[in-house]
């Protein structure tokens, strides 16, 4: 983590690296860790329309109702996606 608050899990999600996300979750990564802007890995996955990673995060217990600094949940972001 640096000043952004990004964890390895956030970076793996940003890279659309499903195997790395799975590995990090299996090793105990905090699925609900938030960056400085309040975004969790689930916010990132949904924002990038990466359904496979979003589903994996949900299966790992990600909280869909955490709000980022713009007062958006991952569900709010999903509602805004065209897919």
Walk me through this protein's architecture.
By secondary structure, the chain is mainly α. The protein has a single domain (8-76), classed as Serine Threonine Protein Phosphatase 5, Tetratricopeptide repeat, CATH 1.25.40. It contains five helices and no strands. It has helices at 8-14, 18-26, 41-47, 51-59, 74-80. Helix 2 runs parallel beside helix 4 and helix 3 (41-47) runs parallel beside helix 5. The protein is globular. The protein starts with 7 loop residues before the first helix and ends with a helix. The mean pLDDT is 93.
Radius of gyration: 11 Å
Kindly provide the name of the CATH class: Mainly Alpha
Q: Please name the fourth-level CATH homologous superfamily.
A: Ankyrin repeat-containing domain
Q: How is the CATH topology named?
A: Serine Threonine Protein Phosphatase 5, Tetratricopeptide repeat
SS field, number of helical segments: 5
Average pLDDT: 93
Amount of beta strand: under 5%
Shape: globular
Distance between the termini: 32 Å
User: Which residues sit in consecutive blocks of at least 5 with pLDDT less than 50?
Assistant: none
Task: Provide the number of structural domains.
Answer: 1
Please report the total strand number as a whole number: 0
Outline the biggest β-sheet: none
Helix content: 40-55%
| CATH architectural name | Alpha Horseshoe
Secondary structure class reads mainly alpha
Order of helices and strands: HHHHH
Q: Helices and strands in order, then pairings?
A:
Elements: H1 8-14, H2 18-26, H3 41-47, H4 51-59, H5 74-80
List its traits.
mainly alpha, globular, 47% helix, Ankyrin_rpt-contain_sf, Serine Threonine Protein Phosphatase 5, Tetratricopeptide repeat, Ankyrin_rpt, 83 residues, repeat
């Amino acid at each position: 983590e640096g000043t952004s608050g990004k964890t390895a899990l956030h970076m793996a999600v940003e890279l659309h690296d499903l195997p790395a996300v799975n590995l990090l979750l299996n090793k105990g990564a905090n699925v609900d860790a938030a960056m400085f802007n309040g975004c969790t890995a689930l916010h990132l996955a949904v924002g990038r329309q990466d359904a496979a990673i979003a589903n994996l995060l949900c299966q790992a217990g990600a909280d869909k109702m955490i709000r980022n600094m713009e007062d958006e949940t991952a569900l709010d972001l999903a509602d805004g996606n065209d897919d």
